[in-house]
Amino acid sequence: MESFSFQNKGRLLFGEDRTGEFARLAAGLSKRALVVCGAHFSRSGELAGLEQALEAAGVRVWVEPDLSSPSIEQARAMMELCRRQSIGLVIGVGGATVMDFAKIVAYGAAQQRDVWPEIEQRGEPRGGSRLALATVSTYPSSGSDMDGAAEMVEKETGRAGGLYGELLQADLCWLNPGYATGIPGPILAYGAMTAVIQAGVAFLSGGRCSFAENASLAVSRTILSSLPAALRGEREAIGELQLAACMNGFGPTSFGKKEVDFSLYFIEGIVENYWEIPYVPAITILFPHWLKSVWSDGGAFRDYFRLAWGADTAGLTGPEALQKGLDAIHRAYDDFGIAWTLQALKPMNPGRGKLLQFVREPGPCESSFRTFTEDDVASLILEAQGARLD
């Protein structure tokens, strides 16, 4: 086990009957709050109830109700609003995109400079302060609820960036299964699978650590076993998905490990940019193809396929073990209505030459599993597309 440091001061609430308690705790953070949320939450009618509870607790509320495609340009406007109105708390209600937006606003509003340059450099926040921050998850997915990461785009140029550090961890997080009902089945399935994928990458990366690997398996098994009932709208199962995704981002899947390999996320960024599809379906479709590309016939991969996906590879050759593991994932994808190839999700035929232009733009792909050349990355993406490699 590697040495590590961990800090999280946030309070986690779970349950559908915690509106009043959430409002009282929010009031303890600030009497002036900005609530940012997606259109789904606004249209559901739940926003009005949350506003009323906050106001009853003595909190004056400003609302940004439609963050369908948030950007740094929109975040700057919200930062200025917070400064002008002396707002002390930002509440992000939604999925990862909305919660990341809230983190950026809470951080940027406390600075006297434009924070986009440091976001673009993808490092830790340079300032030592932010506004109070609360997150309310309506979409069990990437664990942005309580982690210290926030992604952002600049619409004017199309560039993307992020900030990563303990300063961005929320002071208060509420997981309300009632807010996550009504999500269309395919969207719920893809979103939940991203947490399984993140946990899987953590399991395989950074050496062996029993605690971290068992935490990864707990996340994966909980989601894979709860997803069928969640797709039927059962709130108990939706709550299990929310909690597993949140704990995945909370950190235990990487305790005692070296740095998690980033190559899947790097390659996903190319796919997301070129195919113009969101992070969630892009990384979900890419995952099994990435597994195939980084496979090595060692204990970690065989253990992962067996313990997370139920694929017993004992007595099989390396290629046979890999195929059995991939077959198990493929069956699960079929059961949950998840596409196996990019072509099945969004037909395109880029060809190797055009795709290589996008592969070259971000620079080399670093990985602790193997060396990736530009041709290797292009071949991986084309296989994930479902195209014949020309």
TrEMBL record:
What Pfam families does the entry give?
Fe-ADH (PF00465)
Q: Gene3D superfamilies per the record?
A: 3.40.50.1970, Dehydroquinate synthase-like - alpha domain
Looking at its record, which EC class is this enzyme?
A: oxidoreductase
EC numbers listed for it are 1.1.1.1
GO MF term list: alcohol dehydrogenase (NAD+) activity
Keyword annotations of the record: Oxidoreductase
Question: Could you tell me which residue ranges the Alcohol dehydrogenase iron-type/glycerol dehydrogenase GldA domain spans?
Answer: 11-177
Membrane-spanning intervals of the chain:
none
Q: What is this protein called?
A: Iron-containing alcohol dehydrogenase
Organism, scientific name = Mesosutterella faecium
